[in-house]
From TrEMBL:
Residues 57-94 are annotated as: Disordered. The keyword Nucleotide-binding does not apply. One of its GO terms (cellular component) is cytoplasm. SMART domains: ZnF_CDGSH. InterPro entries: FeS-contain_CDGSH-typ, MitoNEET_CISD. It comes from Klenkia brasiliensis. Keywords: 2Fe-2S, Iron, Iron-sulfur, Metal-binding. This is Zn-finger domain of CDGSH type-containing protein. It comes from the Bacteria. GO terms for molecular function: 2 iron, 2 sulfur cluster binding; metal ion binding. Residues 29-65 form the Iron-binding zinc finger CDGSH type domain. Pfam families: zf-CDGSH (PF09360).
Amino acid sequence: MPDEREPATITPYRDGPLVVRGDFRLVDADGVEFDPGRDVVALCRCGKSGLKPFCDGSHKRTGFSAPSAPRSDRPSQRLAALEQASDGDGGAGA
């Protein structure tokens, strides 16, 4: 299914950007949509980037501090947990 895109996920990285993956739209303050040209972007959350809304690494120079996503909120871990649960099903529906 090459035409289907993954739903967007947003992952906050500790002391760093918000990483957006999947099918998403970026819209500016005036409501104008623009295409970043990729399926994964890092968005600034320190407010110091010279490339806003994108991260340029300024958070490292400014000592920005913010938590990462709780481990249970990370999409890859949720998927692994779901796969594990379905594998342990033992064919209960049969």
